[in-house]
Amino acid sequence: MLTENSKKVLERRYLKRDSESNIIESCDDMFKRVAKTIASADSEFLGKEDIEKTEKDFYDMMVNLEFLPNSPTLMNAGRSLGQLAACFVLPIDDSMEAIFETVKNAALIHKSGGGTGFSFSRIRQKGAAVSSTGGIASGPISFMKVFNTATEAVKQGGTRRGANMGILRVDHPDIKDFITCKENSTELNNFNISVGLTEQFMEAVEHDNTYELIDPSTKKAVGIESAKNVFDMIVQHAWLNGEPGIVFLDRINKENTVPGLGEIESTNPCGEQPLLPYESCNLGSINLYTMLKADKSGFDYDKLGRCVVKAVHFLDNVIDVNTYPNEKIAKNSKATRKIGLGVMGWADSLYAMGIPYNSEEALDLGYEVMKFINEESKKASMSLAEIKGVFPAYDKSIYPAKDIKVRNATTTTIAPTGTLSIIAGVSSGIEPAFAISYIRNVMDNTEMTEVNPVFEAIARERGFFSDELMRDIAKKGTISHMTVIPEDVKEVFVTSHDIDPSWHVRMQAVFQEHVDNAVSKTVNLRNEATLDDVKAVFMQAYAMGCKGVTLYRDGSRDLQVLSVPKQQVKGPSPLASAVIPKPRPRITTGLTEKFKTGCGNLYITVNYDENGEICEIFTNTGRAGGCPSQSEATARLVSIALRSGIDTKEIIDQLKGIRCPSTIRHKDLGILSCPDAIGRMIEKVAKMNGELKEEVKKTIPYLHYGEPSAKTPVKKEEKNSESRPCPECGAMLESDGGCVICRSCGYSKCN
Q1: Domain assignment of residue 491, yes or no
Q2: C-alpha distances in angstroms, 192 versus 84, 188, 417, 421, 613?
Q3: How many domains does the chain have?
Q4: Catalytic pick from 105, 190, 268, 408?
Q5: pLDDT tier, 688 (very low <50, low <70, confident <90, very high otherwise)
Q6: Which end of the chain is more exposed for a tag (fewer CB within 10 A), N or C?
Q7: SS3 content of the chain, % helix, strand, coil (to 5)
Q8: Strand partners, 331
Q9: What is the pTM for the complete model shown?
Q10: 668 found inside a domain
Q11: Nearest one of 681, 679, 687, 680 to 612, comparing CA atoms
């Protein structure tokens, strides 16, 4: 049964609206709309009665929250947009025409609600010669910024926000620039990034050897790097802010089910769906909690098996009723007919069975249940192949050699299920629960405590439930040190940060053994985790056969991704010398002034935050010419310096007094150069700061997403620079399966 919060999420994001944004369907109507549309794909093969039965089967398993398809299917099935797939991979070849063709295709996919993955490994390195123009290549990072900007523009009007995965091979000459490209949290914020590691590289890491950097255009070695140094660099930046993640490209291609169609270069935005160029995949998840026996002693495998058969049928039908962004994607997607059936509610199922997540028993059960789902999904795909035929690229796949005829090249994936799990009212994917209870902000800033239903039932049954205790748990984020809770309960109801990182990796690995594609999971580390802890996670994932791994260290970003309180960490951090600029405020106020220079007009804008502190500079030149690139470079560097804590007076002193030869020919300009003008403008605004502070507070009621209105001003001492609020409702976000999710409103970056 849908909870009130589930209904709110569906109303906010999924239900049909009229031209004036009024909701015109109920939650039940939505499930009927989706079931009818997906069942219609059988019209070529089945009679009316059978199609009606299939429609009812599809409706029943959705309305009973036993299975839910990915968000685009729920949103768009039976509607004019009609784009139902979540995951796409697009190729990027090394030419301006190819790059911008891909930008266009990505924009269309984002508009339709899908996420895109790219490998930038074919683009020649920065500084390489461009023979066609005689120019110099700008490198893959510069084009990532183009894609990022395009995504930002498209997502402003979309139902779902565009998300990208950027991958670069570890042997690309620009790999170091790629590893560091997200040091500044305001850069490339529409991308997740992962380094594509090779077996050769990992062997070199293990033996402390060097490896070659390969020019992507000539395929010749152009440099040598220490594998250990590059790996340590990846570790440092993953420790610093969670990026980059890593994917094991050779391992992914070793298990490529259709090798005859080419090499897999990239995955979708959360790392769980490796795809060939121009392929898409639709995903869906079985709610394991609904598959438990009545006495919660284990799984009802008969019920689970029936659900797998219906879910595979559902996902295969999606391929045929889907409206694809372009013909090439349609052709390639139908050639392989890849689907990704996964699970959600794993942690809640363990709670109900009284099994700790961090136990051998949980690992054994995870192996068993995923093995069953994978095998049953193959049988279901074989049954469909008997009726509808094998996928068109079957002869280029691994299956003829095995004498297996299947309808789908892949059938299983463990995807992040952030929003779907909120709708279903269960834990996400195979992640441990992030918290036992939450404090949710509802209307008029009223707080409501939401408790894990399994824990609440146990607490009431055992006699230690109270509203005060639930609120205390929500504030602390864990029950591990609470003496009022029995030890056997604390042992079972562990949360993400109670669990040692090695258990996270082991759980991912046991599910990966029986998943065609890959497993989306975040290894959550405590704030005090060291660089060695991060390195251990990466090496364990490599040793245990994972196809990739994403981790996040609590509190490691300027804008924190997790929402429970943290203890203050004492002592210097391993990367204490790294200076990371503060994020740009969402709202700023500024002044613009025109200056006459020796070569035309220069317009300088100085912006400041709610406290009157200068945070960024912009310049623009008039038609008469001048040196716009130099002025823009100066403005960018000054902006970074200001947000990095450099004293404003020091910046002014450095800029004022710089003289340009063009000013010698002109008297009475009042400035000596463009940098001098920038310095003078900064000084002018800085002197006004005392007068501006009160005025700024009136004109800017809130600075960032966490403050809902001018009626609830945030006191300075209450601000938490280590919290990342939801961009839509202001509640705190959680890391989830390589993505982020808001449990309050259902916002998700990826699904």
Answers
A1: no
A2: 22, 8, 17, 22, 31
A3: 2
A4: 268
A5: confident
A6: N
A7: 45, 15, 40
A8: none
A9: 0.80
A10: yes
A11: 687
* Lookup: tokens for 199: 């077996």
Could you give the percent of the chain with pLDDT greater than 90?
66
- How confident is the model over 216-253, as pLDDT tens digits? 999 999 999 999 999 999 999 999 999 999 999 999 99
Q: Is 745 in the active site?
A: no
- Could you tell me where the DSSP H helices lie in 403-554? 418-424, 453-462, 467-476, 487-492, 501-512, 531-543
Give the Cα separation of 671 and 656 in Å (integer).
Answer: 9
At 505, the pLDDT band (50, 70, 90 cuts) reads very high
Cα(455)–Cα(461) distance, integer angstroms: 10
Active site residue 281: no
Here the CATH number for the domain that contains residue 652 is: 3.30.390
Residues composing the chain: 751
* Residue finishing a domain among 655, 681, 699: 699
Taking each helix axis as running N to C, give the angle between helix 453-462 and helix 346-353, from 0 to 180 degrees, rounded to the nearest 10. 20
- Whether 335 is in a domain gets the answer no
Give residue 609's domain range.
Answer: 589-699
At residue 544, does pLDDT exceed 60? yes
95 or 734: which leads in pLDDT: 95
Looking at the predicted structure, is the pLDDT value of residue 364 above 60? Answer: yes
| 544 in any annotated domain | no
Helix (H, G, I), strand (E, B) or coil at 552: strand
Backbone angles phi, psi at 603, to 5 degrees: -105, 125
Q: Which two tokens stand for residue 264?
A: 């897999």
Active site residue 546: no
- Taking CB atoms within 8 Å and a gap of at least 24, the contacts of 694-701 are 696/589, 696/608, 696/609, 696/610, 696/611, 696/612, 697/610, 699/589, 700/587, 700/588, 700/589, 700/609, 700/610
Mean pLDDT of the chain: 87
Q: What is the DSSP letter of 357?
A: S
Supply the DSSP symbol for 459: H
Residue of 70, 164, 181, 270 marked catalytic: 270
Mean pLDDT of the region 712-734: 51
Q: How far apart are CA 725 and CA 740, in angstroms?
A: 11
Catalytic residue among 272, 610, 707, 734: 272
pLDDT digits (tens, 9 = 90+) for 164-175: 999 999 999 999
